[in-house]
Amino acid sequence: MMAEEAYKAREDVVMAELGDGETALLDQASMRYFTLNETGRVIWDRLREGASLQEIVKALVEAFEVTPQEAGESAREFLEELFMEGLVRKV
Amino acid sequence: MNRVWRFPFFFLGFQDLEEVLPPLEEPLGGLCCLPLEEGEEGKPEETFLCLPWEGPPPGEKGFLPVFAKEPDRLRFSPEEKAFTLTLGPNRALVSPARGEARLHLEPRDFQEQSPWRKRRFLTDLILCFLADRIAFSLHGSLLSRDGLGVFLAAPRSSGKTTFALSLLEEGWTLHSDDYCLVRSPGRSPLVSGLRRVVHLAPDTAKRFEHLVEKRLGITNLSGEKEGVFLKSRGEACLQEVQPRILLFLEKGGGEKSTWEPVLVRDALPLLLEQTLALDTGGMGEARFQALAALARGARLVRIRAGREILERRGAAQAILEELGNL
Description:
The complex is a heterodimer of chains A (91) and B (326). In chain A, 44% of the residues lie in helices and 30% in strands. Chain A has 3 helices and 6 strands, in the order ββββαβααβ. With 326 residues, chain B is an alpha+beta fold. Chain B contains 8 helices and 22 strands. In chain B, strand 5 (64-65) and strand 6 form a beta hairpin. The A-B interface holds A 12, 14-20, 22, 24, 26, 28, 31, 33, 35 and B 264-265, 268-269, 272, 277-279, 284-285, 288-289, 291-293, 295-296.
């Protein structure tokens, strides 16, 4: 996965808040269900707009007390997972 | 317009259908609705029309199945934003956004087939109207007492109806034992009954014989349960309730009843199992969020109890009392 690539959440993946900082995602194509923590939610919100890794890292650094390096590693790992699960597409 | 029926929160007018659709013995044959009183009129913005059939929808392609188990019976066209519903030779093209349905009904088919056929078609027609516009269906029992709403979700043959009728014996109001409607006019979703018919397996019918007002014969699709109207339903089916307790009854409970709390994250997939497929015209997220709000706003409990326990008088009430909050 290249750092300059941008990703977008698939339109048929829907989101709902579960409370206590948790968010649920449902892939309506496969009816598979996922849950996100607060960090995942910040990333997912960016992905709904179609964000690059750089933009996601910036959002994480603003939202949480993390260094750009830590945020970058977490975001890259998470994006990889979302891409593997087919929840995001490259734009 | 010949007839207008009142549902929990909207009105449905059937136009020029007297000849093809003879009056039903009960209002829409088991749906939770009542005809309007003479002189009473539905508000125009809440009134849907059914019109005579004018032909099939143009460009039938790219359909999405919305009845998960019966994809061939009901198809949604994203281009037309309309549903095509079929049951035998009967067809309806339903446009929820325009508030109208074009029908082609074969009276002979309805006359020759068992009564459930007409009821089934009309129930599905209502679901089509609701599918994208104001509400969606959720399978389960809805009960209330003293302002406390309880929604009971359960897989087949787990004792859901037995549990619900057991509470009815203890003075609870049963709004629906089968399909309910969910809508979210505000932050907290409201639930109401959709079908008035309760389907009973032979042993359940015997146990709760004293609650039955009228037997309707075999009315479910698989043909092993009998439909009945219960006594004292009144307009309970038309009331909207905010469930404060969601119960998930599990199959195969033992001789002792047990319960445990359920997290919202675990309850949501259980609720999803009780809905139709979500993605009908881009409304999937609204439905998903309504289900999440329903779970967030309620106490969530998983119950295991064998049928022998549930059939004992007062057993369901005792389980609820054990949970507290009653």
